[in-house]
Amino acid sequence: MAYVNENYLKLPGSYLFADIGRKVNAFKKDNPEADIIRLGIGDVTIPLVPAVIEAIHKATDEMSKPETFRGYSPEQGYDFLIEKIITHDYNSLGIEFSNDEIFISDGAKSDTANMQEIFGADNIVAVTDPVYPVYVDSNAMAGRLGEYDSNEGKWTNLVYLPCTAENGFIPSLPEKKVDMIYLCYPNNPTGTTLTKDQLKKWVDYARDNKAVILFDGAYEAYITQPDIPHSIYEIDGAKEVAIEFRSFSKNAAFTGTRCAYTVVPKELKGYTKSGDVVDMNKLWNRRTSTKFNGVSYIVQKGAEAVYSEEGQKQISEVIAFYMENARIIREGLTSMGLKVFGGVNSPYVWLKTPEGYDSWQFFDKLLKEVYVVGTPGVGFGPSGERYFRLTAFGSRENTKEAIERIKSLKF
Amino acid sequence: MAYVNENYLKLPGSYLFADIGRKVNAFKKDNPEADIIRLGIGDVTIPLVPAVIEAIHKATDEMSKPETFRGYSPEQGYDFLIEKIITHDYNSLGIEFSNDEIFISDGAKSDTANMQEIFGADNIVAVTDPVYPVYVDSNAMAGRLGEYDSNEGKWTNLVYLPCTAENGFIPSLPEKKVDMIYLCYPNNPTGTTLTKDQLKKWVDYARDNKAVILFDGAYEAYITQPDIPHSIYEIDGAKEVAIEFRSFSKNAAFTGTRCAYTVVPKELKGYTKSGDVVDMNKLWNRRTSTKFNGVSYIVQKGAEAVYSEEGQKQISEVIAFYMENARIIREGLTSMGLKVFGGVNSPYVWLKTPEGYDSWQFFDKLLKEVYVVGTPGVGFGPSGERYFRLTAFGSRENTKEAIERIKSLKF
User: Fold this and answer.
1) Which of B293, B299, B306, B397 should be substituted to probe chain A, the one whose Cβ sees the most A Cβ atoms within 10 Å?
2) Environment class of residue B355 by beta-carbon count within 10 Å: exposed (0-12), middle (13-18) or buried (19+)?
3) Is B190 left (phi over 0), alpha (psi -120 to 50) or beta?
4) Complex ipTM more than 0.95, yes or no
5) Which of A220, A355, B210, B381 is the most exposed place for a label (fewest CB within 10 A)?
């Protein structure tokens, strides 16, 4: 008899963005005239930059001729892209890697979800709260999180590290010892950051406890202030305890084109129950070569063009455009007396809902009264209750209009 | 302390094709002049067809303009591609599916490796032997296979279904009851097929035992003879017990472009330990939406073009070209007295090694004496010992030259 993975049956309801989609569709059906502005899901709106488009066309032409056609890519990605990543994203920070420490993938969602596979089933997992749901759900599916308590909105075996205005969104070290720690900075959903000193505390904790940090740096390109680390490997000793995830989605508009990469340093160590030390780069390499067949050649060539001189210039203009949206959102909401966080080193603005509104009540008010869609903070975890996320990825016109509409509301 | 998934540590050595690569590279280093012909790995050599190239260029241009730019794809794929698949690949056989039973992915390797995740950890797995290593390794990594016995070349908890010349490469139903059965037809590596009656026995077995068949149809396009099923769903009742994997790699040269799809019918049932029936389509949908972010838009548009009138005409010419290579290999080897299988409904030719040669000895002889690289049968499982695989994916010139060289050998 084919038994199913019963951990899947413990997952609560449906995916946050599916819930939002249903609510918006129901509203649209009843109000077909409503001119809805979506600042909810973190999808980009500015197209691929010319340097990327040109590179994809060129690679496509190569794929049309026998002498330049490419079959299977190396599962880990092409060296032409890996070398650009190392030079541009790491050597520029004084960090060295060899090519076989970088793994090109179809997305940071896949990598952050799949990485837990190379870890033991009974590690204790910690996440900041609120959090990107993929870290939690992928570990729940693997059976690491115990049971879901729907009253608390929490998994019984998951360690939540609350990040709220009260602690300045700086997670405290856990009281209970943990083995796998997911950190995302600049943070999704709060848009906040850690300084080098604050991040160093976590690297030191991981070193002291032989834990591993799964560091999601998908929003790195949005950092504008000094002293905010662009990579966890800027912290001494991080190579022994940290995996880093990066993506071309949010800096180079690859959400629909799909390319990302993950760094698994050779120094990174895991452990067997009998106390042997295991090289985790080898495990991830085995996972990659057994369960993945590489990213499309034409997509890897597109990603390579992100690192060209024109590519860099073009994407920096796109990022500046979104950050101007973030400023408009931040200042607009602040001017109406709301407490606003993020949006300085991040395309996400995180706001405290006004007195008397929880996350979903605020969502409903914005949708029903001014036709603006955002994301209820509680959807990212219990500490997101009474917060709300808006994204800077809309058009300028929509962003301005949405803020004017929100400003017209009475609370 | 971050424990590792110790199942990974049980995996024998490295991946078959990595071993071959190392041997070939060592030989090349010592013999830089040797003109090596590779008929080993199943990678294609004829480029993407014009209809696909044109569609990718067009989609790339769409990605350059705000009004036609696409961000995140539905995780399950775009309906424009799903509808073509249903009409062309299933309705043409009299089989109906709704759009949400088809899942577009980046490759059949990923899907065949990932699908086991939605199954329970203690299901008994059966594979034909020899077999595509991904089915075995992905289950070993999940801890379903027990221990690897390196003397036997077998996993202690895996049920092997031998397929050799002695049984005409037709697997017998297992003596021990099994829960998950991997079948690949036309078969990789043997190139052999099952008739509808032979496949029906497996569907009936699965229905009687509430098992699930994971049916890999990646080579379906190479079927030339009647009475060979193109889909497992041609067998009555298969929707309740079978998942089907298909790929654009081998019919449309997508090995380096990456697109495939998987069918998980809504009728397909799994079971909980307490006896509840579970809809497996929902589990795979949850896995897909949590751990994957869809296939690149430009790649999905390229795959859609495979189904256009020109696309169909163009890929059928490519397939005919490879099948002529298969004929050349088959007849050439037969004429020198070797026993040869496959190559009629498949791009793979499977030969019995001559008396006195095991798989690796034959590999070494071909590499060292005539510079031809094939794949040792034993690399696909213990019943592959004393067999050898050659692929029809080379150029005409290389294929002819390789066969002439092999014919010059004395055994």
Assistant:
1) B293
2) exposed
3) alpha
4) yes
5) A355
A297, A73 contact by CB (below 8 A): yes
Chain-centre distance for alpha carbon B366: 25
- Give A166→chain B minimum CA distance, Å: 30
Q: Do residues B42 and B63 both lie within one domain?
A: no
**CB crowding B144-170: b at 16 or more within 10 Å, else e:** bbeebeeeebbbeebbbbbbbeeeebe
Print the domain residue range for A343: 8-47+310-407
Q: Which residue has the tokens 């013999």?
A: B31
Overall size of chain B counted in residues: 411
pLDDT in tens, B329-354: 999 999 999 999 999 999 999 999 99
A86-121 per-position pLDDT tens digit: 999 999 999 999 999 999 999 999 999 999 999 999
CATH number where A386 lies? 3.90.1150.10
For tokens 């001017």, the residue is: A335
Cβ contact A67:A294 at 8 Å: no
- Asked if A296's CB is within 8 angstroms of B272's CB, the reply is no
A270 shares a domain with A378? no
How would you label A161-195 residue by residue, b for 16+ Cβ within 10 Å and e otherwise?
bbbbeeeebebeebeeebbbbbbbbbbbbbbbbbe
Residue B1 lies in a domain: no
d(CA B392, CA B189) in angstroms, rounded, equals 12
Verify whether the Cβ–Cβ distance A47 to B64 is below 8 Å.
yes
Quote the number of domains for chain A: 2
Residues of A in contact with B70 (CB under 8 A): 256
- CB spacing of B113 vs A290 below 8 angstroms: yes
B55-A248-B85-B268 Cα dihedral, nearest 10 degrees:
180
Residue A155 neighbours by CB under 8 Å, 6+ apart: A136, A140, A145, A146, A147, A148, A149
Structure tokens belonging to residue B181: 């059965």
- The answer to whether the Cα torsion of B72, B74, B76, B80 is positive or negative is negative
B56 CB neighbours in chain A (<8 A) are 56, 60, 63, 298
Q: For residue B246, name the pLDDT band (cuts at 50, 70, 90).
A: very high
Confidence (pLDDT) at B42:
81
The confidence score (pLDDT) of residue A41 equals: 80
Do residues B61 and A71 touch, judged by C-beta distance below 8 A?
no
pLDDT of A15 over the 80 cut: no
Fill in the amino acid letter for B264: V
Measure CB to CB from residue A4 to each of B60, B211, B271 and give the nearest one.
B271
Backbone angles phi, psi at A249, to 5 degrees: -65, -50
* B21 token code pair: 């690569």
Q: Note the pTM of the prediction, 2 decimals.
A: 0.97
